[in-house]
Amino acid sequence: MPLFRTAFGAALLVACLDDAAMATTQNVIFNGTVTATCTLVVATNGTMTASPDLQSLSSHNSGGSAGTATLTTTGGVSLSVDPVTLTTVPAADSTATTWTPTYSASGTHTIAETGASTALTVPGADLVSVHLAGTKGGSNRFATGNYQATVTLRCE
């Protein structure tokens, strides 16, 4: 009897090996969501220089330079500059200064220099140039010393 069982088991095993395995498939679904995002990375800080009449301290003056930042966005955001709120001026400069920040962009989005908010509707990457101009009115002039102002570039 044990020999019969062994032979029967071997025959059954051989019969099963001849049968092709039943194939089965299932779909695996992937979902993803990309929200409107924007990344700004400052590449260089700007430099302001005085005009010959000392009534302008600006990145646009001879010898001045824009600050730069790289921008990467999915689109669906706006780019802007905030009014200047943080400045450091020498003690000898006691008259009012009007600070005017502006920016322009090149790359996926072409933005002419502006101080207004700009909608960025498509995804892409840009180089943003940020300028700052300080001006004195009337007979007021910039005094000797170090000046510093912070421009906040905003993408939201």
Secondary structure layout plus pairing:
Layout: H1 2-18, E1 38-44, E2 49-50, E3 56-58, E4 67-73, E5 77-81, E6 86-88, E7 98-107, E8 111-114, E9 118-120, E10 124-135, E11 148-150, E12 153-155
Antiparallel strand pairs: 1-4, 2-3, 3-10, 4-10, 5-9, 5-12, 6-11, 7-8, 7-10
Characterization of this structure:
The chain has 156 residues and is mainly beta. A hairpin with a 3-residue loop joins strand 7 and strand 8. The chain has one domain (38-155): Sandwich (Immunoglobulin-like). The relative contact order is 0.24. Strands 1, 2, 3, 4, 7, 8 and 10 form a 7-stranded antiparallel beta sheet that branches. A 3-stranded antiparallel beta sheet has the order 9-5-12, with no helix packed on it. It has a two-stranded antiparallel ribbon with strand order 6-11. The protein has one helix spanning 2-18; strands spanning 38-44, 49-50, 56-58, 67-73, 77-81, 86-88, 98-107, 111-114, 118-120, 124-135, 148-150, 153-155. The chain is built from 1 helix and 12 strands, in the order H-E-E-E-E-E-E-E-E-E-E-E-E. Helix content is 11%, strand content 40%.
Q: Which descriptors apply to this entry?
A:
single chain, 156 residues, mainly beta, Immunoglobulin-like, 7-stranded antiparallel sheet, 3-stranded antiparallel sheet, 11% helix, 40% strand
